[in-house]
Recover the amino acids of this structure.
């Protein structure tokens, strides 16, 4: 018996801005992502925190290297998530307006 493919979860914007200005409840997610990338954040780096689905599951994107929207979407595809229609333009603007990379 074959199982149906799962539906991708929707990624919505929880926060976009400087790492130091993120709400306290998101700081742990930002620090965790920085640790995964072996980065020492100073607090002024731009970040995006996306809420995945309807649960308290978050995905952090460090925006200081200006990732393209296509690169962000590819990263989200790896966790079976897609940007919602409001997140796409907000991330495109925050990532420096780059569409392809």
């Amino acid at each position: 018996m074959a199982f149906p493919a799962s539906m991708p979860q929707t990624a919505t914007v929880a926060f976009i801005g400087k790492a130091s200005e993120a709400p306290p409840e998101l700081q742990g997610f930002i620090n965790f992502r920085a640790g995964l990338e072996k980065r020492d954040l100073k607090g002024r780096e731009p970040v995006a925190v996306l809420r995945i689905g309807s649960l308290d599951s978050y995905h952090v994107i460090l925006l200081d290297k200006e990732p393209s929207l296509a690169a962000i979407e590819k990263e989200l595809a790896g966790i079976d998530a897609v940007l919602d229609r409001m997140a796409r333009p907000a991330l495109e603007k925050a990532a420096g307006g780059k569409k392809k990379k």
